Amino acid sequence: MSKVFRVTPKRVKRTNGTVLTPEMEVTVTTQQHTTDPFYNGAKEIKDAYMRLYGFDYQKACCSKNDFEFKKLD
Question: Model's pTM, two decimal places?
């Protein structure tokens, strides 16, 4: 059973020529039942940011600490 989360950046982050802002909010659905959308290396979050904003999560060296998340289920 999957879970739905809203993921929001905590602050503006400029790294390696990329910019992440708090307005860049995404809603992701995880493949497995979990309480943390970052459990599998943030696969769904990386895909959502690339698809919606063209933002490379890995190139920006993002981590769980850069984001706040809220369960929507």
Answer: 0.89
